[in-house]
Amino acid sequence: MTRIPLVYPAHPLLQITRPLRLSSMAAEAHANSSQLQPENAPQTLADYPVPLSPPPPLLSKNVELNRALTASSKSSIFSLSRNDVLFEDEWLIAVNKPQGIYCESILSSVRKLLSPDQEGLGKLQEFHLSNRLDRDTSGVTVITKSHKVAAKLVKAFTYHMVKKTYLALCVGSVPKWNKIIVKSGHGRSKHGAWRVYAVSDVGRTLPGGSYVRDMETLIEVLSVDGKGCSQGPLGSGKHEENTIVVKEKSEITSCTEKLEVLVRAYPRSGRTHQIRLHCQYLGIPIRGDVKYEGVCEWKDRIYDGHELHAESLSFEHPITGHSVLIRAPLPLWASEALSKVHL
C-alpha cells in the first residue's frame, strides 16, 4: 500500500516572519557597528599600512618551534641562586636572566629564592615583572615586590624615564656609520608578526584593531670583525649621529661578504623586538636571530638563540628617589667580543 504524504495548506496566520526580523536586526547591528568604527579604520586589507620589513623566513618556523620546546623544558626546572641577584632592597629585586629562559620562570624562581617555604604567600603574589626580555635575550630583569611599586615603575617605563643599554653581535654588511638613530613605526602585520612601518603610518589602524606605534633606537658600532671603531664617548660630538626616518623599505641588500658587527643599542622606546627589528632594517641582523634574517649557522657553528644582552638599566628609585644603575655580567660571546675591541 502506497502512503500518500499529507500536505496542509499554509495558514496565513501561521507564516513565520522571524527570519525577516533577524535579517533586519543583523542589518541594523552592522549599521551600528559601522558607526562605531574609527574614522580612519580601513575598509579593505589593501587600505592597511604596508610593512617595510620582510616577514619571517620560512626556515625560521621550525627553528623557532624547536627553540621554544627546548626553552620550555629548561624553564620548567630552572632555579635562580643568590649569585644571580644584581640588586635588592625592600621594594625591588633585579636578577641576571640567562638566554633561553622564559621571563615567567624568572618570576616564579625569584619567589622561591626569597621564600623557599612559601611563607608570606600573599606578599609573594604581588611580585611583578617590570621589564620583559625575549626568551633568548639575557641580562637585567627587574621585579617589584608590591603593586604600589609596580605601578610607579611601569609608569617610568611607559614614559621612557628608564635608560637601557643592550649589546648585540650582528652579522651583515659593514655599516657606513658609527652612530645612527632609527625612527620608524612598529606593529603587527596581518599574519601576526612584528614588523617595521613608516613613520608616517604611526597612529594608523592595523589588522586586528591595533595601531602602528612609534619606535626609536640609537645604535653605535663598537667593532667590525673584531676591530674596534675609533670614536669618542657617547655624546662627545665625535662622529655625529646620523638619523634615519623610515619612509620606505630598506635599500640595503644582502651582500656576499658578511662580517661580525658588535653594537651597543640605546632604545628610546620600549617596543617588542625593537632592537632586533631595527638591526634587521639596517642590514645587520643579530647572529642567531633567524626570525629576523639573522644567520643560524656561522663559521661552522649552529646557534641556539640570538645574541642580544640587556647590559644595563638606570632609573630613579620609585620610593627613595635615588638614582639606580644596574649592570648585568656579560655572557661569554659579549665578553669575548669586547675583549677584542680593547686589545
TrEMBL record:
UniProt GO BP: enzyme-directed rRNA pseudouridine synthesis
Question: In what residue span(s) does the Pseudouridine synthase RsuA/RluA-like domain sit?
Answer: 92-280
Q: Which residues form a coiled coil?
A: none
Lineage: superkingdom: Eukaryota
List the Gene Ontology MF annotations in alphabetical order. Answer: pseudouridine synthase activity; RNA binding
- By what name is this protein known? Pseudouridine synthase RsuA/RluA-like domain-containing protein
